[in-house]
């Protein structure tokens, strides 16, 4: 039995679907009040609970061999949820999940972090991800840390202030640093693979097949839509200040500024080899943008 924590999320649901398609028994920890119908339809066993409720995590882990943790509270915080904070859910809550998994005799723990998590930008999400990676490094379970690059569907989309339809793109810093933007579905395929393959690596860092900068992506958007994009640049110094000022007041926004700054500071060091090794044919950033432009027509 695999337990997925975060199975109602964008990445998490894709992982659950793939695990079920491959015939695996899957349980999901779902927060009280969240719609579980999409999970029940595909034969998932649903246990209600929350990362901030340790007793629910103990019940969820009973009889489980592998835990896959994709959950993060950042999306709900951005949507206005006052509690829990990133510290409470992504850091303390994840530590409780690791404790519960160990106590239940779970053999493997797959955790979704991100590439560049060690860049020391000092955001709440970075602290939570690093603390969880460190907690897992002390565990006797077989642990797999998955570190994908920025997702195409988030950072090359309106949500990530890359709005081809409205012709508006925000860039932190110069925007010339190349990134291997990766498709969420390709990340899901890799997370699924390392959850079930016989001998998974301890850390897997990867991105999509094509490295392009945000400025190059913006030029591509102009060519594809035949419309001029209004590109708004925010200096790195302002992003650093925003991270510091928002740290306590708005942990999600501070972390979003951190993600943008990371994309400008951190030249992507990884490629799509871990995907190809597993037979996954990844979508390039260019193909993703071409498809988005086609949908806009
Ligand atoms: N976006 C990127 O570019 C990027 C890059 C690298 C890594 N990542 C990582 O990839 C993962 C993204 O996953 P996703 O797309 O599935 O995120 P998502 O769509 O925001 O979903 C978050 C999931 O976490 C669950 N959750 C939130 N708070 C919880 C709590 N207190 N207890 C239990 N579950 C809780 C949510 O449940 P509800 O549905 O009930 O809210 C939902 O299932 C994250 O770990 C993120 O840090 C993202």
N-to-C series of helices and strands:
EHEHEHEHHEHEHEEHEHEHHHH
Q: Give the biggest sheet.
A: 7 strands, parallel
The CA-CA distance between the termini, in Å, is 44 Å
Average residue pLDDT: 97
What's the CATH topology name? Rossmann fold
Q: What is the molecular shape?
A: globular
Text of the CATH class:
Alpha Beta
- Give the radius of gyration: 19 Å
How many β-strand stretches? 10
The CATH architecture name reads 3-Layer(aba) Sandwich
Residue ranges: pLDDT <50 for 5 or more in a row?
Answer: none
How many structural domains? 1
Quick one: CATH superfamily?
NAD(P)-binding Rossmann-like Domain
> Which strands sit side by side, in order, in the main sheet?
3-2-1-4-5-6-9
Strand-residue proportion: 15-25%
Give every kind of bound small molecule, once each.
Answer: NADP nicotinamide-adenine-dinucleotide phosphate
Number of helices: 13
